[in-house]
Write a structure and sequence with these properties.
Length: 551
């Protein structure tokens, strides 16, 4: 390493027993309480995930999806759960074409065309915890923090205030101007029509009642009977496509994690319909270079990672969809041979041009937990765009996701809309193993940015030996399109040096400089487990509102 690690504004959190990191401090506290009372990593993650669905409602909630990586220390087994929802039985290209749409709307009842999988995901991992991990914390107890903050209120964060104001913009009726939805206006704006300000106490009474029913009756109450029927009735009244049968037929699937070798470590992620294989492909390409010989923070460092990202994304966009509907040659895409082929296309003097305009959207939460028993969880939860579809079935408080708006209405497209199909998903939680146990538990929000930030974290920790918090805080980039742009660019934080900036321009990169610590770069988190001492090192992103807490 040629330069010392940069200064970090926060210290890395260290603890001998357990660690949790989430992008909201109240969620971190909810999970830590479970850990301190003897609960395991899965139980703590459920408490944190349900809580953050209340206190960070613009980023996630029970109307969205989640994905899980779970390491069971006693069995030395890594499990993966896909709890993303499928499109409705009546969700067809013809349905939208007859309504005159050239693409699926991003907002409203017609945008909410996939079943929310989050609650079923909590239940599936809870049942696994009870059956296999000696989980003992009662289900209803794990949801009490979420219920408390929904009923009694929580202080609104600057992030929520900002994104609410952005989405009250009346100049953009297709995507913004969310106060046109009556339930959204009732819940997320004050009586004067303005957004809640940072520090205001916000209550979600309807959501509290919904969570209380789920706590009492389990996830089944969300998908069967009165609650599901009520959501479907209001959706259909407003032109939506989901049916009661769609909710009843939802299932979460245990799947085999996928992996690649990176510098002798093993990187794990989720298989399609997630973009996890793109995150792994980036590492597979970088593995062909002597990265430590390249100065971190130099133009060559950023150039190499950006070019690897472009090439991995080309493979991703050619194949990624629901594997039940299309064959995806994962073994070939993640092979050493493919890594070598893609690496050979990278030239340090010029850029690779990527034709596809990348989608800049995707608001999400990632959280990680390592418990005192050696178990670990990497989990991600989302409603897709900020505030999802913004359609909230009457009196439920449930913000339904708009993940299905990512389907294409072109029947020849790999991710074309079909009934009972899972869409291409940006969500992908990650782990990196050293030997046969977790070394890094990591992830981030940010749609297209997730694979990019994961690569930044791994290279800075593994190749350059950055402390965890310093790796999270170091200047980041985002390759993709911004609102209103017709081409991709590289957005970089202003802390990147002028010398590096000019050198990247000379290599052919189209650059945009953003403010330091912009949350456009996502809210990343990492937990590192020392394989000898088992000390846990945790970090949370100052770009978000989170905290890494240990004991």
């Amino acid at each position: 390493m040629k330069n010392p690690p940069p200064f970090s504004y926060r210290p890395t959190t260290m603890a001998p027993n357990a660690m949790i990191t989430t992008p909201h401090y109240l969620a971190s506290q909810a999970g830590m309480k479970v850990l301190q009372e003897g609960g395991n990593a899965v139980e703590a993650a459920i408490a944190a995930a349900s809580t953050i669905g209340v206190v960070y409602p613009h980023m996630n909630g029970i109307g969205g999806d989640n994905f899980w990586l779970i390491y069971h220390a006693q069995d030395k087994e890594l499990k993966a759960l896909n709890s993303s929802g499928r499109s409705g039985e009546n969700a067809t290209i013809d349905f939208y074409k007859k309504l005159g749409f050239g693409k699926i709307p991003a907002r409203g009842a017609t945008a909410a065309n996939t079943v929310p999988g989050a609650v079923a995901g909590w239940q599936s991992v809870y049942d696994y915890s009870v059956d296999r991990m000696k989980g003992s914390v009662p289900w209803n107890q794990l949801l009490q923090s979420a219920i408390h903050y929904a009923k009694e209120g929580f202080p609104v964060t600057p992030s929520q205030e900002h994104w609410t104001n952005v989405n009250l913009d009346k100049t953009d009726n297709e995507f913004r101007h969310l106060q046109r939805f009556s339930e959204f206006k009732k819940i997320f704006t004050q009586s004067n029509g303005f957004a809640y300000q940072a520090g205001d106490l916000m209550r979600q009474t309807d959501l509290a009642l919904t969570l209380e029913k789920i706590a009492k009756e389990g996830s089944r109450s969300f998908y069967f009977g009165e609650m599901a029927n009520s959501m479907v009735e209001d959706l259909q009244y407003h032109g939506g496509v989901l049916t009661s049968e769609d909710f009843v037929s939802h299932r979460s699937d245990w799947v085999d994690p996928i992996s690649v070798n990176y510098r002798g470590y093993q990187a794990f992620n989720l298989p399609p319909n997630t973009q996890g294989f793109a995150s792994l492909s980036i590492l597979n390409i970088l593995n062909q270079f002597d990265l430590p010989s390249i100065e971190e923070g130099s133009a060559d460092y950023y150039h190499l990672l950006i070019e690897a990202i472009k090439l991995a994304f080309e493979d991703r966009d050619q194949y990624l969809t629901d594997p039940d509907f299309s064959s995806i040659p994962l073994d070939e895409l993640l092979s050493i041979k493919r890594g070598e082929e893609l690496a050979s296309k990278i030239k340090f003097t010029k850029t690779v041009h990527l034709e596809k305009q990348l989608d800049p959207k995707g608001d999400t939460v990632w959280l990680g937990v390592v418990d005192q028993y050696g178990n670990a969880v990497s989990m991600i939860q989302s409603i897709y765009h900020e505030f999802g579809s913004s359609f909230i079935p009457k009196d439920t408080g449930v913000v339904l996701q708009n993940r299905g708006s990512f389907f294409s209405l072109d029947p020849t497209h790999v991710n074309c809309l079909q009934p009972r199909k899972r869409s291409y998903h940006t969500l992908n939680p990650a782990m990196l193993f050293k030997g046969n146990q977790p070394y890094l538990v990591y992830g981030t929000m940010g749609g297209e940015g997730q694979p990019q930030t994961q690569a930044a974290l791994v290279t800075r920790i593994v190749d350059y030996h950055y402390p965890i918090q310093a790796a999270i805080e170091a200047p980041r980039w985002l390759y993709g399109r911004t609102w209103g742009a017709v081409s991709n660019s590289v957005k970089i934080e202003a802390r990147i040096s002028e010398e590096t900036f000019q050198a990247l321009k000379e290599k052919g990169h189209q650059l945009e400089v953003l403010e330091d610590f912009t949350d456009i770069m996502g809210h990343a988190g990492v937990i590192k487990i020392d394989p000898d001492s088992q000390i846990k090192y945790g970090g949370a992103d100052p770009r978000g509102d989170g905290a890494a807490i240990g004991y």
